[in-house]
TrEMBL record:
Residues 1-43 are annotated as: Disordered. It is an enzyme of class 3 (hydrolase). InterPro entries: Peptidase_M76_ATP23. Belongs to the peptidase M76 family. This is Mitochondrial inner membrane protease ATP23. The keyword Coiled coil does not apply. GO terms for biological process: mitochondrial protein processing; mitochondrial proton-transporting ATP synthase complex assembly. Its EC number is 3.4.24.-. GO terms for cellular component: cell junction; cytosol; mitochondrion; plasma membrane. GO terms for molecular function: metal ion binding; metalloendopeptidase activity. Keywords: Hydrolase, Metal-binding, Metalloprotease, Protease. It comes from the Eukaryota.
Length: 245
């Protein structure tokens, strides 16, 4: 598989090719020129025609995303499609990122292959956005904060669910999900930080237990869309109870 050497690590064995995404402390995937200008540059970096319609479909129909959008709103961080999403061409094989400095989710239109991929990327990045909203996340200097959010995003976004189901079917290995989450979190950190795999691993190990068991706002690990729909229903009911108090 093309891309950084880490992208073909053991965690991705048997998994359909997936790009690591990034929670960016800076926007390294954006064009070095500083963004769209005019003329040729503008046309080079103009959103691909598929990106916006796929995003719209994701926002309107994907149960993971609908729950996260509700949860963000509930936490006072309502998401606006125009303001908080940006379709861009990205370097390497990164498929998306959360830019904490602008609270914007970047969707790498040159690397997002289809609707299912768009669903996963938006879900993953919205989990970072949710963490950014609910907690004072120190993305820039505290590697454990980044590690925690990457563990949660890998665990709850469905990044590991497809492979998980395949492995469960074939081998009944429940622990494979945990292994997948751990490995993907490490890859995600390495995609945005210039640190050794050992350091990234240690950060993930330090936070794994508590962050793997933090399922907010899903309340459970949503292994597939049906679980996600149940989780959304429960969230809406929870919301209702609160507003009745
Ligand atoms: Zn991430």
């Amino acid at each position: 598989m093309a891309g950084p050497p880490d992208a073909s690590g053991p965690g991705l064995a048997g998994e359909p090719p997936q790009q690591p995404h990034s929670s960016r402390q800076a926007p390294p995937e954006r064009p070095a020129q500083g963004g769209p200008q005019s003329g040729l540059l503008a046309s080079l970096f103009a959103p691909s025609p598929q990106c916006q319609p796929m995003l719209l479909e994701t926002l309107e129909t994907n149960p993971y995303v609908r729950l996260l959008l509700d949860a963000m709103k509930h936490s006072g961080c309502a998401v606006d499609k125009e303001r908080h999403f940006s379709c861009e061409d990205c370097n390497g094989n990164v498929s998306g990122g959360f830019d904490a400095s602008t609270s914007q989710i970047v969707l790498c239109q040159n690397n997002i292959r289809n609707q299912a991929h768009m669903n996963r990327v938006v879900t993953h990045e919205l989990i970072h956005a949710f963490d950014h909203c609910r907690a004072h996340v120190d993305w820039f200097t505290n590697i454990r904060h980044l590690a925690c959010s990457e563990v949660r995003a890998a665990n709850l976004s469905g990044d590991c669910s497809l492979v998980n189901e395949i492995f469960r079917f074939h081998f009944g290995l429940k622990r494979h999900h945990q292994t997948c989450v751990r490995d993907r979190a490490i890859l995600s950190i390495l995609a945005v930080r210039n640190i050794s795999k050992e350091v990234a691993k240690r950060a993930v190990d330090e936070v794994f237990e508590s962050c793997f068991n933090d399922h907010e706002p899903f309340g459970r690990i949503p292994h597939n869309k049906t679980y996600a729909r149940y989780a959304h229903r429960d969230f809406q009911n929870r919301d209702r109870y609160y507003s009745n108090i």
